[in-house]
Amino acid sequence: MCPPEHFTVEYAINPWMDTTVPVDPALALKQWQMLKDTLTDLGHTVHVLDAVPALPDMVYAANGAFSVDGKVYGARFKYPQRAAEAAAHRQFYVGGPWTFADPEHVNEGEGDFAYVPEAHGGLILAGHGFRTDPAAHTEAQEVLGRPVISLKLVDPAYYHLDVALAALDDRNVTYFPEAFSESSQQVLAQLFPDAVIADRADAEAFALNLVSDGRHVILNHESTALGEKVRAAGYTPVYVELSELKRGGGSIKCAVAELRP
């Protein structure tokens, strides 16, 4: 995670960003700390990446890389406003027990990649359509040695995979079908017949931008409807208010890069 010490909305690179509405920096930091504390209270270790001045979106740490089995596929951001974030994430990984690969193609880390390790032998789900170059899916497969399923996003409001789909555990997912092309919807239905299906209200509340440890599903405080759906599926929803980070087009998942050694 990376604290929102320099967080602001000073440009608009997704439909949720409104430069006319000021961010409350103190509230953003307080809410981020609540999320960090929630994760540690659930028994998880949180590594903190230092915030860098002039990079207001670094708080969305999930976009900096994608890791599987100790291998890390680095990010290459589409927009120049975020490009320098990739180097900060790279520095974190190359200083640890990871095998890091620099990307040739545009991709935004866990923003457009999700891993379901026990589904069909282990699958990477990968989004494209707005940020990540489809060629990055092939590149990631070569780097990570896991099959990659390409999914086309078609609604600009759901510009990253992680606002349209999330892994709930090692086998199953939740997703909003209308964020995907018809063919991608068919693929998801075949791969995950027991998926928890979200509706538009869930998606608009950024409910799918969640983090799950297989038992606890951490959602933003607006996401009670999806929370009840995942509860019915056997998980325990945990709510955290993250309203300030939503101003930049992200929520729980965007703020958390999951490390898979």
UniProtKB/TrEMBL annotation:
Pfam families: DDAH_eukar. Keywords: Transferase. One of its GO terms (molecular function) is transferase activity. This is Amidinotransferase.
